[in-house]
Amino acid sequence: MKIAVTFENGNVFQHFGHTEYFKIYTVTDGAVTSSEIRSTNGSGHSALAKYLSDYGVETLICGGIGGCAITALSEAGIKVCGGVSGSADDAVAALLAKTLVYASTANCNHHDHDHSCGEHEEHEEHEERGFLGRKPGKEL
């Protein structure tokens, strides 16, 4: 199994669509057997689901994520654990221990404008705002 985490400086990066790196963990028999940091090569919102799917990722841990991204990831067969913060390694350990608290619904509210899913990638330069103010969704 492969788990991807939006990654920056050892922590879960807080904006899925703007992440420059994923830390990808390979898990065998419930334990991490290897990990690597992979660049997104500047891919934006719409390309990241395919990027992760092509790499064989089954679960994504991230901070803020919007509904369109969750839909694309779900359609690619990737389970989303959003609204997570802190150490990437600790988040994966919590996921494997079935104690990770996360949101399975959209928790990205950093836009001050309306747009549809197809328009999201046109707004890559917008300002980030706090979007983790929601209560944790559920425990795995």
Salient structural properties:
six-stranded mixed sheet, Nucleotidyltransferase, domain 5, 20% helix, two-stranded antiparallel sheet, alpha/beta, 8 strands, 140 residues, 3 helices
Write structural notes for this entry.
It is a single chain. By secondary structure, the chain is of the alpha/beta class. It has helices spanning 45-54, 67-75, 88-96; strands at residues 2-8, 11-12, 21-28, 31-39, 59-61, 79-81, 101-102, 138-139. It has a single domain, classed as Dinitrogenase iron-molybdenum cofactor biosynthesis domain (Nucleotidyltransferase, domain 5, 2-Layer Sandwich), CATH 3.30.420. 20% of the residues lie in helices and 26% in strands. The strands form two sheets. Strands 1, 2, 3, 4, 5 and 6 form a six-stranded mixed β-sheet that branches. A two-stranded antiparallel sheet has the order 7-8. Strand 5, helix 2 (67-75) and strand 6 (79-81) form a beta-alpha-beta unit.
Give a brief outline of the structure.
By secondary structure, this protein is α/β, with parallel strands linked by helices. It has helices spanning 45-54, 67-75, 88-96, and strands spanning 2-8, 11-12, 21-28, 31-39, 59-61, 79-81, 101-102, 138-139.
Indicate the topology.
Elements: E1 2-8, E2 11-12, E3 21-28, E4 31-39, H1 45-54, E5 59-61, H2 67-75, E6 79-81, H3 88-96, E7 101-102, E8 138-139
Parallel strand pairs: 1-5, 5-6
Antiparallel strand pairs: 1-2, 1-3, 3-4, 7-8
